[in-house]
Amino acid sequence: MQKGMHTDTERCVRAVRSKDARFDGWFFTAVLTTGIYCRPSCPVVPPKAENMVFHPSAAACQQAGFRACKRCRPDTSPGSPEWNQRADAVARAMRLIADGVVDREGVTGLAARLGYSTRQVERQLLAELGAGPLALARAQRAQTARLLIETTALPMAEIAFAAGFSSVRTFNDTVREVYALAPGELRTRAPGNTSRATPGVLSLRLPFRAPLNPDNLFGHLAATAVPGVEEWRDGAYRRTLRLPYGHGIVALTPHPDHIACRLTLGDPRDLTVAISRCRRLLDLDADPVAVDGQLRADPVLAPLVDKAPGRRVPRTVDAAEFAVRAVLGQQVSTAAARTHAARLVTAHGTPVDDPEGGLTHLFPSPGELAGLDPETLAMPRTRRTTFTTLVRRLADGDLHLGAESDWPETRAELLALPGFGPWTADVIAMRALGDPDAFLPTDLGIRRAARELGLPSTPAALTARAAAWRPWRAYAVQYLWATDSHPINFLPV
Q1: Closest Cα to residue 311, out of 218, 190, 404?
Q2: 10-residue block means of pLDDT along the chain (493 residues)?
Q3: What is the end-to-end Cα distance of the chain in Å, rounded?
Q4: Region of residue 100 (phi > 0: left; psi between -120 and 50: alpha; otherwise: beta)
């Protein structure tokens, strides 16, 4: 699959006729005779080829006057893998839009984060996605509104503002235009009775492209969980979330065809951001067919991929938090890193109420950590300097880690910090920044796996050997790690 797939009409028609779910999110099918748009895997009888036109985004379909199909619900398909495998301006813009930046800061705020003019950003998005930032954000608001309408008993006025609309009238008009139904009709048609839902709790399903192997994904999150902030309970990974308007608690449970997501939010306006960050945490917009296909071409990796296909890269909901934890984990065991992090949480984290018990704090922000006494840190003096320098740079805004990060530039900035070597910079690039090609040739687990598999074990030689795995070396890391018996590689019992 490649950039601009919607322009390859013949390939798109074949995908629609085969109802291939792997292509959901890569492009959308607009049907000229019905005025609706669908995902490629829509279960209805495919229209004639001459009646199909293809668009790169739901927003482009809506801009062209098409309504969302009521059967396949194209607005709920996984996002395009393009935005998580590229570091150019368009991909970074799409990650920021998914994180709600346009709703909170406007197009000028989006452009400022990217370092471009608003005109440049609008032109690039329109050229590649057929819609500008406002239209893309509007499509996202419509999707959030539908989710709240169908899964909660919130009054429509509250839903309108929670989804990011400026007025109830705009909310009503947009929902009717996109879904060809009034908000009240959407709620009436929704399966189940929303009035039975637990007040303040949202339950939803997060889709993904199959296959998905949950073992290393949830195993890693559970094995490294910081007490008070994260836990594994009753088959679910639970954690607290620091969000733009408040805080939240999420429980994520793997199922064969979806991830069950249960959200408790202090402010419903954080719903879009919370979903975006949970999807990013679990790498749900990845294209496992493309990843595994490339890695399977290597005869050494092929048996590992065939044994457990669909491994994802466990990421994070907060890039700054992960960077801090990466420094705490330098040259110590997983258990010791958790202990260091738990002490920080107890001393500096913001307390939260967990209705289910178990979670007690938000992980402290860089601002909350900037004033701590370095002497209270139970670590060598050089690592204290590394820690305090990182926290100060993050708190002052001199170092930005987030959806807008340019991966090579940010990695270079990290390597310039005292105490930051390639392992720390690359693990942050892989798990916090989302670089799918980040590689850890100095990692002890990777070098051990390389020796056992007959691969070169010195960092330089292994890096040269791994060139054939690009641009998916972060996924190769997951397959190599999985050769070990460490708890990070196994779904908790």
Answers
A1: 218
A2: 73 91 88 94 93 92 92 80 81 90 93 93 92 92 88 88 91 92 90 60 88 96 96 97 96 95 92 93 93 96 97 97 95 89 94 94 96 85 94 94 89 96 96 95 96 95 97 97 93 87
A3: 36
A4: left
- Omega within 30 of 0 (cis) for the link into 471: yes
Q: Could you give the CA distance from residue 167 to residue 347 in angstroms, rounded to a whole number?
A: 42
Q: Which residues contact 31 (CB under 8 A, 6 or more apart)?
A: 37, 38, 47, 51, 52, 66
CA angle 302–303–309, rounded 5-degree value: 80
- Take residue 173 and report the two structure tokens written for it: 């008009």
Distances (CA, A) of 306 to 257, 309, 374, 456, 466: 19, 6, 48, 22, 19
Three-class DSSP category at 440: coil
CA distances to 22, 33, 35, 74, 271 from 41, in Å: 8, 19, 18, 9, 27
The model carries a pTM of: 0.88
Residue 240: strand, helix, or coil? strand
Output the furthest CA–CA distance in the chain (Å, rounded).
71
Read off the amino acid at residue 179. Y
Tell me if 116 sits within 8 A of 96, measured CB to CB.
no
For the record, the structure tokens of 399 come out as: 């170092």
**Alpha-carbon distance 273 to 243, whole Å?**
7
Contact 54, 82 (CB under 8 A): no
Question: What is the length of the chain?
Answer: 493
Catalytic residue ranges: 38, 443
- Residues 127, 131: Cα–Cα separation, whole Å: 8
Q: What is the pLDDT of residue 4?
A: 66
C-alpha dihedral, 380 to 382 to 383 to 388, nearest 10°: 120
> What is the residue type of 285?
D
Peptide bond into 211 cis (omega under 30): yes
